[in-house]
Amino acid sequence: MLKKLLIACLLLSLIIAGGLVWSYQQVKSSLDLPVQTPENVLITVKSGTSFRGLLNHLAEEKIIRPSTWTRWIPRLEPELVRLKTGTYQITPVMTLRDVLALIASGREHQFAITLIEGDRFIDWQTQLTQAPYLKHASKTMSEAEIAKAIGASGIEKLEGYLLPETYHYTAGTSDIELMRRAYQAMMSLLDEAWQTRDQNIPLKSPYEALIMASIIEKETAVDDERGVVSSVFMNRLNKGMRLQTDPTVIYGLGESYDGNIRKRDLRTPTPYNTYTIFGLPPTPIAMPSKASVLAAVKPAESSYYYFVADGKGGHKFSKTLTEHNRAVRDYLRTLSK
């Protein structure tokens, strides 16, 4: 009788053990099932979200199939249920285990925004307003208030002060934080560039170098030309000539610019009309790239005083007005073909 009881207990133990092993394998299998999404998706884990709430959300979004086995994951894999708030990207190659490990790690999805060189501050504001998952803290702030918030106290206009670059951020980051990073990056670049400048350039301060860099940026997008364009403006400044550069006129026209520069625009005095003023305009006219900043402080050596578009994406540089006028006529003939 005792022997039969022992055998029965042994069989029961084997059945229970087998059931536990089978259950364990089912939980493991549920973790290793691939997600159901055919494309990358973003999910946001909010503060206070429970593990059960996360699973329900994933099932509602059709990222995973509902399973009764997933409720046992906290007992078997407790490290996977330590949820961290944030926004995460789920890809089609992931499994549920991968998703939970990602959320437990806190490695949030990095969004990217590329702020373009040559754009104005107002253009950047528009771009930042349209950026996804970015907190728009500056929406009701004036330019001077934004400047103060990013650490640029005493500055009224931010034109030129932010470095064009690709910036990464996580969901909920403030646009002020991105602009602060861009400002600090430009100040670091400008300080280093000014310290290593050509001592013969006719610029009196880092800010004047920033103004010059913005003009170079608007005049050419050809890297090999930046230093030469810079040399033209330096030569004209050294000789007491007006810069006579169209982009400054356009900037001065502001909202009234309709895509065309007329003779009256060149004759109408504004603080930015370098056809009527001597020297530099009062502020930068765009956000200059690193290449333009470096060209402003280290221009090429040349005897050029003029340049005009060559109709092929670059410019024709001239030493005399006679040569320049000939280059202008050649350019106009190119346009008429």
UniProtKB/TrEMBL annotation:
Taxonomic superkingdom: Bacteria
An example Gene Ontology biological process: cell wall organization
Taxon lineage: Bacteria, Pseudomonadati, Pseudomonadota, Gammaproteobacteria, Vibrionales
Recorded family membership: Belongs to the transglycosylase MltG family.
Function: Functions as a peptidoglycan terminase that cleaves nascent peptidoglycan strands endolytically to terminate their elongation.
Chemical reaction(s) catalysed: a peptidoglycan chain = a peptidoglycan chain with N-acetyl-1,6-anhydromuramyl-[peptide] at the reducing end + a peptidoglycan chain with N-acetylglucosamine at the non-reducing end
Gene name per UniProt: mltG
NCBIfam families: endolytic transglycosylase MltG
Organism whose genome encodes this protein: Photobacterium ganghwense
Annotated protein name in UniProt: Endolytic murein transglycosylase
